[in-house]
Amino acid sequence: MLYIVISFLFLAIVLYFLLGGADFGAGIIELFTSEKNRHRTRKTSYEAIGPIWEANHMWLIIAVVIMFVGFPVIYSTMCTYLHIPLLIMLLGITARGTAFAFRNYDAIKGEKTQNLYNKVFVYSSFITPLFLGIIAGSAISRQIDMHPVSYLDAYIFSWLNYFSVAVGLFTVALSGYLAAIYLIGQADDDNDAKRFITKAKAMNILAVLFGGLVFIASEIEHIRLAHWIFGNPVSLTAVIAASISLLISWVLINKGKRKIIRIAAGFQVTMILLAVGYMHWPYLIMTKDGQNLSLFQYQAPEKTIKVLAEGLMIGSLLILPSLFYLYYSFQKKEETV
Amino acid sequence: MGYICTVSYLFKNMDDFIAARSQMAISLGFHIIYSCIGMVMPVFMAISHYKWIKTGEPVYKNITQAWSKGVAIFFATGAVSGTILSFELGLLWPKFMEHAGPIFGMPFSLEGVAFFIEAIALGFFLYGWRRLNKWFHWFTGILVGISGIASGILVVSANSWMNNPAGFDFINGQYVNIDPIKAMFNGSWFSEALHMTLAAFSATGFAVAGIHALMIARKQNVTFHTKAFKIAIVFGAAAAILQPFSGDISAKNAANKQPAKLAAMESYFHTVPYSPLTIGGFPDTAAKKNKFSIEVPGLLSFLVYDNFKQPVAALDQIPVKNQPPVAVTHIAFEIMIAIGSTMMLVGVLYFVALWKKRSWLSRKWFLYLFILSTPFGFIAVEAGWTVTEVGRQPWIIQGVMRTSEAVTPMPGIAYSFYLFTAVYIILSIAVIFLLKRQIKMVPQLYDR
Fold first, then answer.
1. Residue numbers of chain B with a pLDDT score lower than 50
2. Per the CB < 8 Å rule, is B180 touching A334?
3. Whole-number percent of chain B with pLDDT over 90
4. Cβ contacts of B438 on chain A, cutoff 8 Å
């Protein structure tokens, strides 16, 4: 039963990264689009994510609930030492979700108000995945100090370090990449598609650069990242698979295969997540004093895990088919009311 | 000047524990409004949608579309404020979540599922006007309401566990024999869920009806607003009339499980036979008596035990360190009762008008009655929420864990409290601004 719960936790994280990430990415792409093309990007992304964006963010809720029901000590430790980045992430989620909804449901489309919503939307689309990445990086950065001597040690340097920030930037680039790939398939005309192809390539190059930065930062912070990733067969295979799919997606992008590249890009990112997720298995948090919080050691009592697993299985029977049907229904483009 | 001094004093000296409690109170206080509207409006919307499909009268389609915009706005704000809360539980009360998570987490995980279904259904509904089969489209609309109400009930069930903990044994400071299902169906879940669901319907019904009444009084799009008014007020009035009965169940439950809360609600200091019901007034906790209040002997005994004589336990039966703040709990309770009773009367008047005095329906005084009542339900919701939360203090888990034991060790929570207060105020201003613009544009967008 524990393995079912852990599988759902990873499924929720991966899907949040892919779907929520692409969603944040739409804002990032908008941020890095020239003024004259912005309204076109906005239109495409509105049509692409309008019906599905709320659902994309539900994976975060599922992941959080699994954490506090199934692994409460790990959840409370993260909440205590990563309080500040979590808080900034929450502000980002709030600003982004409401700005996106408000810009569509403001009955009067005034220039000033729309500009304000757009600004809030694009900047929060950048900040939120940045901090999601920082939080993820911090959890394994060995910078969380459970016996701190000062406020800064406890609550600031736990997340403000080269490694965590590099992971944050890497997350932003991957989100932008996923969004660009997704938008290529939703583009109205070839001109738009070309713009999104350029963006996808740029974001992919950025992701590779920031990925390199993560490795450099890990050396500075004395985190044995290379050893972890290349030292176990699962992560190593996943990294190789991600690299191969990177090459394949470049070929597919150049050939203009609009829909298949989504699979290639999704696979690529999933493999990256598998590599980094497995490298410190089964630890979710690694602290300064070497006290690592393992999913096995800090699981909730057996009865809770059993009921949680059952709830998740029944829930997924309801959620997954309807979610697929939602995506399927809104693949075809049509005017909305 | 005094005011400025108080504010600057608070700014410099707000202690972390008070700040954490205030931040939680602010977050829930706003979230409860967004989510009540987010769960009830879809039901109104589905009723109107049903009428449109059945009668083909375009006005019902227009109402459905106008309301769906409101639903979308409130769902988005409710979803983000709910996301904030799911983290705030851990950010502010890590020790509580560490122990309580595995016990009372079951309703939260089911709520996650219900909320997910709601988001999917809303996506279908909002964007499905021209591409879905009309009955499937209608179904997705009512599904938004059903899953929203289910979410609400599940979250309240988690809260009721804090009032009436069950599903574990607390032995030597350890939480053992955990049973999440028993915790979910604790002795208070039904009374609290019923009370909150009715409250959501009456508050939202009165608020929506009040706004439409205002537009009728201003003679704008009268048919549109009259039909909308009717759908909303039927639910609001019916729920307001049923609410006192559910309140009675809740009070008996409190007497049984949380005597300190009931005593504080009633500001009832000394245990006596023929226990009196205290109406109005201000509790003087130092002198242990009430000022300016009316006391009806025997009525409290009657309400709790169905006989006038049996004494109800008062605050003197509870050690001072385990007593909730009496004044806040009592005054909040009185506000809730006063407003609830008024709403019930207004609700009765509506049905009298509907069945016996149809001429009232178009009278100005009648419309103004409902315009005046617009905010009543939500004031009562806030007051009731204050009663249940403040009345549980000093416990976060009644009788098991103190709120002060649960708070985060991180200093400087006051700043996060100010930040979130600002965020919620800005959000609320934005929502009101958007609703005003939606209402203003009714003639152009919905009722041409």
1. 1-2
2. no
3. 65
4. 105, 107
* Alpha carbon separation from B155 to A81, A222, B406 (Å, rounded): 27, 44, 20
Query: In angstroms, rounded to a whole number, what is the distance separating the alpha carbons of residues B374 and A160?
Result: 48
Contact (Cβ atoms closer than 8 angstroms) between residue A337 and residue B137: no
* Cα separation, A135 vs A133, whole angstroms: 5
What is the ipTM, given to two decimal places?
Answer: 0.88
Q: What is the pLDDT of residue B428?
A: 93
For residue B80, give the nearest of A73, A97, A105 by CB distance: A97
8 A C-beta contact, residue B163 and residue B392 = yes
Question: How far is B391 from chain A, CA to nearest CA, in Å?
Answer: 26
- For B120-267, strand residue ranges (E) read 169-171, 174-176
Chain A residues whose CB is inside 8 A of the B437 CB are 106-108
Peptide bond into A282 cis (omega under 30): yes
Rounded to the nearest angstrom, the minimum Cα separation between B370 and chain A is 26
Number of H helices, E strands in chain B: 15, 8
Cross-chain Cβ contact A336/B416 below 8 Å: no
Most A CBs within 10 A among B86, B120, B140, B155, hence the mutation to make, goes to B120
Predicted confidence at residue B12, as pLDDT, reads 54
**Spatial distance between the Cα atoms of A4 and A274, rounded to a whole number of angstroms:** 17
Give A144's DSSP letter.
Answer: B
Residues of B in contact with A98 (CB under 8 A): 76-77, 80, 427, 430
Q: For B94, which of A79, A93, A330 is closest by C-beta distance?
A: A79
Q: CA–CA separation, A330 vs A47, rounded Å?
A: 9
Check if A94 contacts B (Cβ < 8 Å): yes
Residue A335: exposed, middle, or buried by beta-carbon count in 10 A (0-12, 13-18, 19+)?
exposed
d(CA A105, CA A247): 41
Q: Is the minimum CB–CB distance between A319 and chain B shorter than 8 Å? A: yes
Given a cut of 60, whether residue A335 has pLDDT beyond it is no
If one counts every other C-beta atom within 10 angstroms of the C-beta of residue B244, the result is: 14
Residues 137-166 of chain A whose Cβ lies under 8 A from any Cβ of chain B:
151, 154-155
Which three-class secondary structure state does DSSP give residue A292?
strand
Give the minimum alpha-carbon distance from A230 to chain B in angstroms, rounded to a whole number.
34
Q: Which residues in chain B are contacts of A58 at CB distance < 8 A?
A: 112, 115-116, 119
Instruction: Give pLDDT tens digits for A237-279.
Output: 999 999 998 888 888 888 877 778 888 888 999 999 888 888 8
Residues 6+ apart with CB under 8 A from A319: B113, B116, B117, B120
For residue A120, the one-letter residue type is V
DSSP element (H, E) containing B239: helix B222-257
CB contact (8 A) between residue B117 and residue A311: no
The two three-digit tokens of residue A100, written as one number: 């996106």
Cβ B123–A78 below 8 Å, yes or no?
no
At residue B10, the pLDDT reads: 52
Helix (H) or strand (E) holding A284: strand A283-286
Among left, alpha and beta (phi > 0; psi -120 to 50; other), residue B410 is beta
Interface test with B, best of A16, A59, A60, A98 (most B CBs within 10 A): A98
Task: Tell the burial category of B170 from Cβ atoms under 10 Å away from its Cβ (0-12, 13-18, 19+).
Answer: middle
Cα separation values, B132 from B45, B115, B136, B184, B318, Å: 17, 22, 7, 37, 60
Nearest CA in chain B to A70: B102
Helix and strand counts by DSSP (H, E) for chain A: 14, 2
Evaluate the CA torsion angle B14, B15, B18, B23 in order and state its sign: positive
Q: Which residues contact A321 (CB under 8 A, 6 or more apart)?
A: none
